[in-house]
Amino acid sequence: MNIEIIPAIDIIGGQCVRLTQGDYGRKTTYGADPVEIARNYEAIGIRRLHVVDLDGAKAAAPQNLGTLRKIASATGLDIQYGGGIKSGEALRAVLEAGANRAICGSIAVTDPERFEEWLAAYGPEHIVLGADTKAGKVAINGWTESSETDVQTVIRRFAARGLRQTICTDISRDGMLAGPNFDLYATLQEEFPQVEITVSGGIASSDDIVRLDGMGLRSVIVGKAIYEGRITLKDLEQCLRNE
């Protein structure tokens, strides 16, 4: 198996939570310690962790940097962190707190020139485009608003500037455990072969991961399926052994 599995830790108030379709009113709190969860992932061979600061996404500035620092100091994981990165100060704070990759979504739509500056200044290995889609359009501000821009247009612009990774969440599938939008990801990866299209939203079982791997996708984020026991640590370990 060639696809990289990236477990997700979504944080509100320092606790692990999951939202359904990005709705803060449909929140499940799992109460587990994010640091302990991160350590468990690293112990089975996971290399990269997806951390979403949901408080930050809502507040338009990172709010859980303390938790990020704890995870970074307790593990050697490659951490990609998103949520509220809308200023140069916020970006620097996230990278200095231990994230190796900063996920920038809203800013890429509302101020694309600034995103291009960050891409040039920090390099495409550290700046990730968050292009989350709702009914074909990119959603911004913690998924509370839809822009008039489609995903392909956003990726196309920055791919020409050296972008290497895009995390694309189909919001209609997020937290639904109903399988990802396979057609969307196949189309994006075919159109942008030089960009790693990271699949996010809807993963329900190991079979979904196997199918995405067979389609040539390079990385996938898994969240609720792990918390709900649909995919166990043993399942993840088996997938990693098959790499």
Could you characterize what this model shows?
Helix content is about 40%, strand content about 30%. With about 240 residues, it is an alpha/beta fold. The strands form two sheets. The protein has an eight-stranded parallel barrel with strand order 1-4-5-6-7-11-12-13, surrounded by six helices. A hairpin with a 2-residue loop joins strand 8 and strand 9 (about 135-140). The termini are close together.
In short:
With 243 residues, the protein is α/β, with parallel strands linked by helices. It is 38% helix and 28% strand.
Offer a few descriptive terms.
single chain, alpha/beta, 11 helices, eight-stranded parallel barrel, three-stranded antiparallel β-sheet, globular
Topology diagram in text:
Layout: E1 4-12, E2 15-20, E3 23-29, H1 34-43, E4 48-53, H2 54-59, H3 65-74, E5 78-82, H4 88-96, E6 101-104, H5 106-110, H6 112-122, E7 127-130, E8 133-134, E9 137-140, E10 145-150, H7 151-159, E11 165-169, H8 182-191, E12 196-200, H9 206-214, E13 219-222, H10 224-227, H11 233-241
Helix pairs in contact: 1-3
The percentage of residues in β strands lies in 25-35%
| Number of distinct helices | 11
- Give the number of DSSP strands: 13
User: In percent, how helical is the residue content?
Assistant: 25-40%
The SS-based structural class is alpha/beta
Radius of gyration of CA atoms, rounded to a whole number: 16 Å
Largest sheet composition: 8 strands, parallel, barrel
